[in-house]
Design goal:
Number of helices: 10
Helix content: 25-40%
Strand order of the largest sheet: 1-2-3-4-5-7-6
Number of strands: 7
Distance between the termini: 135 Å
Structural class: alpha/beta
Oligomer: single chain
Order of helices and strands: EHHEHEHEHEHEEHHHH
Length: 277
């Protein structure tokens, strides 16, 4: 029984009597559910009833791969399911096949949250492969959270996933609803910044997606001479244009030196003539 309300475990869910509105959320997070308690939920027992939830949230419980089957049965009865949240449970590789079947069945899924569980690298690889095969082209990328599982070498696995499947780690140029690289799956936060060794926001560089830098070509602008300017600007421009350029300084110095010597020689010649007279 729920210590806070005194209600039984089966009653700690949405109202079973009324009709479900489109866009409703089945929020059973942070209830402390075990596998046995999930199996006793009324929604699980009434398997003939179709559901219209767009989000099913059983996160932050104590559900293992055994109890997950009951949750996935609810999901299969939701024709428009968009978000499935199962993070912070005890799900291991025994549930991988059931998760893969759900990805094939629920084509409307946009987000699947499986972080902070007990999946291994092999389980992660199978889930991503199933998502890649089931995901249609020209739709929003699947937001797939698989970080914080039993994966000892996240960077190496992520590199393998990106080489084999249509996966992006949501680089800086991507959003949750679009991928710059036209990938089917977004796998954000799978590798931490410390593991990347690159700092925050370097997804493209980390994965070898070396985006070419645009070539910079400096050309003269023909429109500059036609641009109308005020008279004051024209005067300032004329004064600036009249100044010698840096490469003209040597020539200017040479000219000044010649004038100096010519003037000095003329003065000495005049003094000599006066002395003679």
């Amino acid at each position: 029984r729920d210590a806070r309300s005194g209600a039984s475990t089966a009653q700690r869910t949405v109202d079973m009597g009324g009709a479900y509105k489109h866009g409703a959320t089945l929020d059973q997070s942070k209830q402390g559910y075990t596998d046995a308690q999930v199996s006793e939920l009324e929604l699980v027992k009434d398997r003939q009833r179709s559901l219209d939830f767009d989000e099913v949230n059983f996160s932050d419980n104590s559900i293992t791969s055994t109890g997950l089957r009951a949750v996935l049965d609810i999901c299969r009865r939701c024709d428009r399911l968009k978000r499935l949240k199962l993070f912070k449970n005890k799900i291991c590789d025994r549930a991988v096949q059931a998760l893969c079947d759900l990805l094939k069945h629920c084509q409307s899924l946009e987000e699947v949250h499986l972080s902070h569980n007990r999946l291994t690298g092999d389980g992660v690889l199978e889930i991503v492969r199933a998502a890649d095969n089931a995901r249609r082209n020209n739709v929003h990328p699947l937001w797939l959270r698989l970080e914080k599982n039993d994966v000892p070498n996240g960077p190496a696995l992520l590199q393998k996933l990106m080489e084999r499947h249509s996966v992006c780690d949501k680089g800086p140029a991507c959003t949750s609803r679009s991928c710059k690289y036209q990938k089917k799956i977004h796998l954000p936060h799978f590798v931490t910044d410390a593991e990347k060794g690159k700092g925050k926001g370097n997804g493209a560089a980390y994965h070898g997606r070396k985006e070419p830098r645009p070539a910079v070509v400096l050309t003269a602008r023909p429109d500059l001479g036609k641009r109308s300017r005020s008279p004051e600007a024209d005067r300032r421009g004329a004064r600036l244009d009249s100044r010698p350029r840096e490469d003209d300084w040597g020539e200017a110095y040479s000219h000044a030196d010649t004038v100096y010597h010519q003037t000095h020689g003329q003065r000495r010649h005049h003094r000599a003539e006066r002395n003679e007279s």
